[in-house]
Fold:
Amino acid sequence: MDASRSEPNPTTTERRSGREVVITRTFDAPARVVFEAWTRPELLQRWWAPKSFGIWFISCEADVRTGGRYRFVFGHAASEQPMAFFGRYLEVTPPSRLVWTNEEAGENGPVTTVTFEERDGRTLVVMHDLYPTREALDAAIASGSTAGMDESFAQLDEMLGEPAAGR
Amino acid sequence: MVQYHPKHFDASFAALSDVTRRGVLEQILRGDASISALAEAFDMSLTGMKKHVGVLEKAGFVVTRKVGRVRTCRLGARRLEREAAWIAKYHQLWTARFEALDGIVEELQRKEKADGRKQK
Structure:
């Protein structure tokens, strides 16, 4: 950790329009630099599996161009089975837009769109996970899985603490 | 302090581990439904559906209310809590990813600067 570094920029996360989850974050760098870190597999795998989440890359293949496929395989501290996430890049437009499918959950998986907007040398990243239907997002929540991360019921319940039934 | 409640986890897991109950929960997500309507939709006896709804109710996913002779099911508080927890977890994941990404972006910029100097 760099001691000279100030607080990280804030991340916002919200469910929107019933079938969409939107995440925003600003980076103190031009869009082409941020875009590069999202599209070069050797860079991507250095940040996509955060240590604090107890996950790590077993393999990271990404053919980052329109129509190209990706496949990420993670090891997970909470499970012996590796987890695979895969899909296809629908759009790769440097340095402003990335769109990919998430196919590990079949046709109920979301389509992820990431936009990179540069202003005064800083870049606003907006990520949309758009599910095919409201029911598909509800089902993802009910099953405890998230796009890019398979959460067990135990982990979610750990956060929930006391059961609602007791109130 | 957030604590882990194995009993609670078991109830949730048992409630959602059954394909019919997941279907019932999905149906209720679309709108309130009476037990008899659910029994009909899932081609099941009233007694069988009552049992399934009972398990969902115990886990807090569903609450039921009886008006006259009709028992209606709607979404329980637990379901909404789960959504908030899911969003929070997803938020944590991306916050952690972005902090690691800050480091990479910084490194790329330093490299760019150093390369720029070399070229001059």
